[in-house]
Write a structure and sequence with these properties.
The protein is mostly helical and 605 residues long.
Length: 605
C-alpha cells in the first residue's frame, strides 16, 4: 500500500435511517434528565467490598474491549456474590440491553429497581419487556414513571400508543399519539404512526388520510420505511399504480438507490391479493416506535449510546425488522465493532430489500478489519451478480489496489468508467485511482495522463496534487511543477501528515535541510507511527548535521510497521552504523521556487 494517499469510496449513507422527525428534539428536552447521565453508571467502579473482583475485572476488560456480551456475563458472575451492588447491577442491564438480551436485562433492571435505581432506562427496559410479553398494563405502568419534555412529548406517546393497540383500544392509541402534533418536526411522524394504527384496525380511509399528509406535504420528509409502508398500503387497497409511481419518485441521494430500485420492482410485481400488511401486530408497531426513537436520539445530544439501546429494543420487539438491524450494524460500525456489525448483517436474509446494500457494507467492514482477502472475495461475487454496478466495481478496484494487485485493479476501474456517466461527480476519483495504480506499476506515461485528468475533473484536489507532485519528485522529474503542486496541496490541507511530509521531503530533495526538518517534524507530530515519515525526518536530521538525532530517529523507525513499500529496513540499519553520504540536491529554477515559496502561509513559512 503506497504512502501516497488514496480515497476509499463511502459505501452507505446514514440517510437511510432519517425518520420524519429530523429536527425538534432539542425543543422538547426542557425538563428532561440528560440521557448521558442516566447511562453514566457503566463507567463507574463498584463500591461494595463483597464483590468477586476476579469476575468484575474480567468483565471490565471485556467491557473496555467492547466485548459487551462477555462483559455482561462476567458482571453477572460478580453480582451473584454481591446482589445489592447498585453500580454493578446498572452496568449489567445497560450492557445486556445494548446486546439485545432484553429478557435478561429486564431481570437485572428489576433487581436494580428494588435497590432504588430509578433512572429512566430502568423503567424503559422493564416496560418494553412487559409489552413484548403482552403485559400491556404493566408496560404502561412503568412508562408512567418517565417524566420530562422528551418523554412526555416524544418517547411516551410513541411507545404507549402501541400498548393501547395491544389492548385493542384504537381511539385511546390515537389520542395518546397527539402530543407529537405539537411539534412541527414531528407532524409527519404522528401521521405515520396514526396511519399504521388505523391500517392495523382496518380503518382504511383514516389511514389513507394520515399517509397522504406525508405524501403530499413537501415539508414532510419521506423516509425509506415510510415509503415502504405507504406503498404497501396502496397496493393492498387497489391503488397499485399510485404505489409504483410513488416508489419511483425518489431517486436522489437521500435514499439508497439499490433499495429504492428493489422496492419499485417489488411494487410493480406485487399481487394485491397476496400482499400482506407490514404491520401485523402491536409488536411490529412497537418496533417502529423504538426505531424512530433511536434514529431521532442519535441525531441529538443524547448520542450513540442511547440510540444503541433503543435500536436493540426495536429488534427485540420485531426480530425480523431488517432496517432496524441495518441501523444497529451502522451503530456498531461507528463504534469500530466491525465483526459484530457483520454478524448482524449475516442475520438479514437474501430476500430483504437491503441485502445488496448490506453486502457492500460487509465488504467495507472487512477492509476496516484489514481482511482484504475476504473483501475481495465478497466484492467479486457481487460484481458477477451485478456487472454494471459502478460502486461495486470501484470498491473492488480499491481493495485490489490495497492488496497490491494493480493490474487487476486497473481492469475494474476501467469497467467502472465504462458504466459511469461522463459527467459523474466520481469520475475524477476513478482516474485518480487509475493514476495511482499505473504509478505503482512504474508506467508514468499512463499515470500522468490519468492523474492530470483527475486533477482537471477534481478541481485540483489536494490529494491528486500531492500524489502527482510526490511521484515526480521521487523520479527527479518536473521538479518545479512537482514543488508547486505540493505547495498547493499543503496550502489546502496543512494538517494532513502525508502532505506535510511531501513538502518536507521536497525541501530535502532541493537541499534545503533546515526547512525540511521543520516540516518533517510537523509531519511526525501528525502521523507519529508512520515509518516513512520518521525515516524521512532521520535523513533530514543527518543532512542538517544533527547526527545523533538522526540515529535516534532511524532506530525509532525500525520499531514501526511500514505500509508504504518505500522503507528499506536493511538500509536503515546501514545508516545507523555507517551514516549517509552527502546528498546531491536536485536542480530547480530558483525564480519559480521563490515565487511558489511566497504563497505559503506566513505562519507556516
Amino acid at each position: 500500500m503506497s504512502k501516497l494517499r488514496g480515497i476509499f469510496i463511502t459505501l452507505l449513507s446514514l440517510s437511510l435511517f432519517n425518520s420524519c422527525a429530523n429536527h425538534g428534539l432539542e425543543k422538547i428536552k426542557a425538563g428532561s434528565k440528560p440521557a448521558q447521565k442516566e447511562a453514566a453508571s457503566v463507567n463507574e467502579a463498584p463500591r461494595s467490598g463483597k464483590i468477586n473482583y476476579g469476575a468484575y475485572l474480567a468483565g471490565r476488560v471485556a467491557h473496555l474491549r467492547q466485548n459487551f456480551s462477555m462483559a455482561a456475563d462476567y458482571y453477572g458472575i460478580a453480582v451473584s456474590s454481591d446482589p445489592q451492588n447498585k453500580d454493578l447491577l446498572s452496568k449489567i442491564y445497560v450492557i445486556l440491553a445494548s446486546r439485545g438480551r432484553i429478557d435478561e436485562a429486564a431481570k437485572y433492571a428489576e433487581m436494580s429497581l428494588r435497590q432504588g435505581d430509578k433512572n429512566n432506562f430502568t423503567y424503559i427496559i422493564i416496560a418494553v419487556n412487559a409489552l413484548k410479553e403482552k403485559r400491556w398494563q404493566d408496560g404502561l405502568n412503568n412508562m408512567k414513571h418517565l417524566q420530562g419534555g422528551i418523554y412526555e412529548g416524544f418517547i411516551n406517546p410513541l411507545i404507549n400508543a402501541w400498548a393501547y393497540v395491544g389492548m385493542n383500544q384504537p381511539d385511546k392509541a390515537l389520542q395518546t399519539l397527539k402530543p407529537l402534533k405539537k411539534e412541527a418536526a414531528f407532524r409527519a411522524l404522528y401521521h405515520f404512526h396514526a396511519g399504521m394504527i388505523n391500517d392495523y384496525f382496518d380503518r382504511r380511509e383514516e389511514a389513507k388520510r394520515n399517509y397522504e399528509v406525508i405524501v403530499n406535504e413537501e415539508s414532510a420528509e419521506m423516509s425509506f420505511r415510510s415509503l415502504q409502508v405507504i406503498t404497501n398500503f396502496y397496493i393492498r387497497n387497489g391503488e397499485k399504480d399510485k404505489a409504483v409511481a410513488l416508489s419511483q419518485k425518489y431517486n436522489d441521494d437521500r435514499l439508497l438507490v439499490d433499495m429504492l430500485n428493489k422496492l419499485a420492482q417489488s411494487n410493480i410485481k406485487a399481487d394485491p391479493e397476496k400482499t400482506s400488511k407490514i404491520i401485523n401486530s402491536p409488536d411490529d408497531g412497537l418496533a417502529e416506535a423504538l426505531f424512530n426513537i433511536s434514529a431521532t436520539m442519535r441525531q441529538g445530544n443524547a448520542g450513540i449510546d442511547i440510540a444503541h439501546i433503543f435500536i436493540s429494543l426495536s429488534i427485540y420487539a420485531n426480530p425480523k425488522y431488517d432496517l432496524a438491524k441495518l441501523m444497529l450494524a451502522d451503530i456498531l460500525e461507528s463504534r469500530g465493532m466491525y465483526r459484530e456489525a457483520n454478524a448482524v448483517y449475516d442475520e438479514i436474509p437474501q430476500t430483504s430489500l437491503a441485502y445488496n446494500a448490506l453486502q457492500m457494507k460487509k465488504a467495507a467492514n472487512y477492509v476496516m478489519l484489514h481482511d482484504y482477502e475476504a473483501a475481495e472475495i465478497l466484492l467479486k461475487t457481487l460484481s458477477e451478480e451485478q456487472p454494471q454496478n459502478t460502486q461495486i466495481l470501484m470498491d473492488l478496484g480499491d481493495v485490489l489496489r490495497i492488496r497490491g494487485n494493480y493490474d487487476e485493479a486497473v481492469e475494474y476501474y476501467k469497467k467502472a468508467l465504462k458504466h459511469l456517466p461522463s459527467n459523474s461527480d466520481v469520475n475524477w476519483v476513478v482516474y485518480y485511482a487509475l493514476g495511482m495504480c499505473y504509478e505503482q506499476l512504474d508506467d508514468m506515461d499512463k499515470a500522468e495522463k490519468n492523474l492530470l485528468k483527475a486533477l482537471a475533473l477534481g478541481q485540483n484536489h489536494y490529494y491528486i496534487q500531492n500524489y502527482l507532485g510526490y511521484s515526480w519528485l521521487k523520479r527527479g522529474k518536473n521538479i518545479d511543477e512537482a514543488f508547486a503542486l505540493i505547495v498547493d496541496a499543503y496550502n489546502q490541507a496543512p494538517n494532513d501528515g502525508h502532505i506535510t511530509d511531501s513538502l518536507g521531503w521536497a525541501f530535502y530533495k532541493l537541499g534545503r535541510y533546515e526547512d525540511a526538518v521543520t516540516y518533517l517534524e510537523k509531519a511526525t507530530e501528525i502521523e507519529p507511527a508512520n515509518a516513512l515519515i520518521n525515516n524521512h525526518l532521520g535523513d533530514a536530521y543527518w543532512q542538517a548535521g544533527r547526527k545523533n538525532e538522526a540515529i535516534f530517529q532511524w532506530r525509532h523507525t525500525l520499531k514501526m510497521e511500514d505500509d508504504s513499500g518505500e522503507v528499506d529496513m536493511k538500509q536503515i540499519r546501514k545508516k545507523i552504523t555507517g551514516g549517509m553520504p552527502e546528498e546531491q540536491p536536485l536542480s530547480y529554477n530558483e525564480t519559480l521556487f521563490y515565487e511558489k515559496l511566497s504563497t505559503l502561509s506566513p505562519s507556516e513559512n
